[in-house]
Amino acid sequence: MNRSLIDKYNVAGPRYTSYPTVPYWVDDTFSMKAWKDSLLKSFAESNEEEGLSLYIHLPFCESLCTFCGCHKRITKQHSVEIPYINAVVKEWDLYCDLLPSKPKIKEMHFGGGTPTFFSPTHLNLLINCILRRATLADDYEFSFEGHPNNTTEQHLQTFYDLGFRRVSFGVQDYNETVQKAIHRIQPFENVKRVTEQAKAIGYNSVGHDLIFGLPFQTEAHVKETIAKTKELKPDRIAFYSYAHVPWIKGNGQRGFDESNLPSGEAKRQQYELGKTLLFEAGYHEIGMDHFALESDSLYQSMITNQLHRNFMGYTASKTKAMIGLGVSAISDSWFGFAQNVKNVEDYYHLVNEGIIPVVKGHILNAEDLIIRKHILNLMCHFETSWTPDDLYFEELPEILEHLKEMEQDGLLVRGEGQLTITEKGKPFVRNVCMAFDLHLKRRTPERQLFSMTV
Ligand SMILES: C[S@@+](CC[C@H](N)C(=O)[O-])C[C@H]1O[C@@H](n2cnc3c(N)ncnc32)[C@H](O)[C@@H]1O
Ligand code: SF4
């Protein structure tokens, strides 16, 4: 990898799970009424045909991993389970009461935090309450995130019996020094046990989350982690770039020093090594950070051009509407975004008052919708194209200049009405998206808001 390219393009940049990105949402045009109207419009246009996605955020974890950028609350008190479930069900009821007919669920994902913090009995209760007010699309996909240290066979069986066929486990790195630094001791045996149990029960997609660029991590550690991963042959692998975002409140990224992190160059080498090893092991690269075996639905959706990206990450199919339930969860009606309050007590208070617990959001204007489409194309397919009605690129020199420069650097090629990111440019896909990000261009952040792109 060319060193000067890394120096040039390793800048703070969004991961584009949405456009506009959360720090650029415009509150002035957002209101609860506007949010509800945008959801009703989306529902009318898409519920019958494609159905909607549901994301449920379960924030509790027993122990704090000091690298973690997710929204979580650390507690060992399992008495929090029932009040939280009651609140999520109330929030779901508020949405169901708003919608003119029963929502049809195409995708449902349980994320966190740690969904497997909750007991199988309580999860069973929660899922039954959700499904009671919905119908299911024929080819529905249910998935959850499990922590290898606390996922039991009973968890796996319970989720499976309720229709879940996909699970992902947080692995990160197997090296002990790295695990100590990130405060997450997790022996290989634990990952092996849950992976084998999930496969034996019948899950058709088992995923592992790995990270490169962690404190004290080296290429040797990446090699060892991927060798062990290969033994278990997960169907999907997320190979995330460590996002160092210590300014996010309460995320606990203080267990190590910045000097313990690999440099931009070393981090990129770890990625290149990991990618080569994963290719050798039969995995295909899917969008940014993801790899899958040919048999996995994510690979199938990539080759049939169905791959989609939203707040849940990459998904195998697109739904126009996604409702997020639980603290900090984000909903997306395609025409608007809305984020829930982050504090558990505020969340309880609002839902108990019968109020959808949204704290902020954004309604997309015509320009946002066009740019969103291109960013989604780039993140999912590494290319995008436009028609003469959609002449943003010709008309906006700030986009064109940026693209020209990246073309000169060999990161992309432009043709008539289209552009394609080259192999060399793929690691810089976030930077290419930034060329289209008019919100970012028009208001440069005064302080760092995003992790580095490399
Ligand atoms: C909610 S956790 C997974 C479930 C469970 N809590 C666990 O830790 O096993 C989601 C995943 O996000 C990834 N992640 C969290 N913080 C990250 C960060 N700062 N940079 C990159 N990836 C991160 C990790 O790979 C983690 O497994
Ligand atoms: S990595 Fe998982 S278990 Fe660890 S703090 Fe984050 S959400 Fe919780």
Provide the list of bound ligands, each named once. S-adenosylmethionine, iron/sulfur cluster
Strand-residue proportion: 15-25%
The radius of gyration over CA amounts to 21 Å
Helix percentage range: 25-40%
Residue ranges: pLDDT <50 for 5 or more in a row? none
Report how far apart the termini are: 12 Å
Q: How do the strands of the widest beta sheet line up side by side?
A: 9-10-8-7-6-5-4-1-13
Number of helices: 16
Give me the count of strands.
19
Structural class: alpha/beta
**Sheet with the most strands?**
9 strands, mixed
Instruction: Calculate the mean pLDDT score and round it.
Output: 92
Backbone shape: globular
What would you note in describing this structure?
The chain has 454 residues and is of the alpha/beta class. The protein is 38% helix and 21% strand. It has 16 helices and 19 strands. It has helices spanning 3-9, 32-46, 81-98, 120-132, 153-161, 176-181, 188-201, 219-232, 264-280, 297-303, 344-352, 366-381, 392-395, 397-408, 429-436, 438-442; strands spanning 52-58, 60-61, 73-74, 104-112, 135-146, 164-172, 205-212, 236-241, 284-286, 290-292, 308-310, 313-315, 322-325, 330-332, 336-340, 358-363, 383-385, 412-415, 418-421. The strands form five sheets. A nine-stranded mixed sheet has the order 9-10-8-7-6-5-4-1-13, sandwiched between helices. A hairpin with a 3-residue loop joins strand 14 (330-332) and strand 15 (336-340). Helix 5 packs parallel to helix 7 (188-201). The longest helix has 18 residues, at 81-98. The radius of gyration is 21 Å and the shape is globular. The termini are close together. The mean pLDDT is 92. It binds S-adenosylmethionine and iron/sulfur cluster. S-adenosylmethionine (SAM) is lined by residues 61, 67-70, 111-114, 145, 147, 170, 172, 209, 211, 240, 242-243.
